């Protein structure tokens, strides 16, 4: 799903492979139940495999230990630029670009800032698609102090592709946060049970209530005895979705059972990439719907 490379400056950058991009496109194609009234991605699939491979190959441009895009933000920038502009898929290229942005950030340890307005993300992606990044930059110049070189300024509003990629990477860097500091998503209860088993924490679900406790099993000569002791019993209410536990409820559970960063358990330990992407699709469903109409 991913590759990685180490640059001259010591940075390790993780890149997305072709099967990963195809999976993201398929995820969009199969997620209409998450996004009511979204235009279906029809026809599905790749329109030009060569253009798709070209978009993905942009991440690896370089020679030896030198890479043209040697950090997560510029590398992500050139990938989403290629996916959106190459029109590799019959439909859903901008939406695939959005998920590639989210995924590329994730595998490199970042997420989109929760404070970022979805309207701005929409304008940003449309500006890439319509070759209007200079206009986007001008509109948001009070928010972002992007400085072009003297050579770049000679071209006026006619930005080169390199300048456009540099701005896209600049915007991404300004609007991403380390994922270990940003708890996002919903966690499947079945996954939570597996995680907590190793800590002798038991979960029983009764409808919309989670009963959680620590089970201490007695042993004799190294063998478990049938009797056990239950301590620290707690109950937590679930929302309308009885298969997942939300962020705020999980925060309480982690605090009650010493599963916090202070105790050596990082936030991202609880989330896998699939549940994270499902959550991001739900978070940006209105944005994805708008992109489907453009």
Topology, please?
Blueprint: E1 2-6, E2 12-16, H1 18-29, H2 49-57, E3 62-63, E4 66-67, H3 72-86, H4 93-107, E5 110-112, H5 118-129, H6 133-139, H7 150-153, H8 161-174, E6 176-178, E7 187-188, H9 189-197, E8 201-206, E9 209-220, E10 223-237, E11 244-245, H10 247-256, H11 273-283, H12 285-293
Helix pairs in contact: 1-4, 2-3, 3-4, 3-8, 4-11, 5-6, 5-12
Instruction: Please report the number of helical segments.
Output: 12
Distance between the termini: 29 Å
Which range best describes the helical content: under 10%, 10-25%, 25-40%, 40-55%, 55-70% or over 70%? 40-55%
Q: Strand share of the residues? A: 15-25%
Quickly give the CATH architecture of the largest domain. Answer: Up-down Bundle
Quickly give the structural class: alpha+beta
Could you give me the name of the CATH homologous superfamily of the largest domain?
Fic/DOC protein, Fido domain
Placed side by side, the strands forming the largest sheet appear as: 8-9-10
CATH class of the largest domain: Mainly Alpha
Please count the beta strands (DSSP E, at least 2 residues each).
11
Contiguous uncertain segments of 5+ residues? none
> In one word, what is the shape?
elongated
Largest sheet: 3 strands, antiparallel
Report on the architecture of this protein:
It is a single chain. The chain is α+β, with helices and mostly antiparallel strands and 294 residues long. The chain has two domains: 2-181 and 274-293, Fic/DOC protein, Fido domain (Four Helix Bundle (Hemerythrin (Met), subunit A), Up-down Bundle); 187-266, no CATH class. It has helices at residues 18-29, 49-57, 72-86, 93-107, 118-129, 133-139, 150-153, 161-174, 189-197, 247-256, 273-283, 285-293; strands at 2-6, 12-16, 62-63, 66-67, 110-112, 176-178, 187-188, 201-206, 209-220, 223-237, 244-245. It has a three-stranded antiparallel beta sheet.
